[in-house]
Amino acid sequence: MGQTAANASAVAKLGFAPKQVVLELGYDDDVDDELRDQIEDVLGVPLEDEDYGDVVDAVLLWWRDDDGDLTDALVDALTTLEDEGFIALLTPKVGLPGEVDASDVAEAASTAGLQAAACLNLTQHWSATRLVTPKSGRR
To answer: Which InterPro entries does this one have (predicted)?
Structure first.
């Protein structure tokens, strides 16, 4: 399977679907533009930026070790999500600048009231974790 096909499959596994409204946070010059394009192709609409003022179906969060407090970022992202929404947390792969230890992701997610629903090697440089609220915690 080629890299583009693998990325498209990973985008689907993360849970992105047509017509979802997705807020993108943590955008910088190191993000994977091909992956962003593939997500937008699936959605059929552009990704929204931090100026978007309404609730969203999902948050695409690019996160690096030196970006600050991951727990705070996840809690902030939760405030924008629909009840059944999810956060796609993208972090640099192990060994790359900005990598985030998996235990740090797990701890931050747990503290924010989230759990990992999927972990994927998304691209050559980025790993992804799909974070959701536990079903027992939904109202």
So the answer is: DUF3052
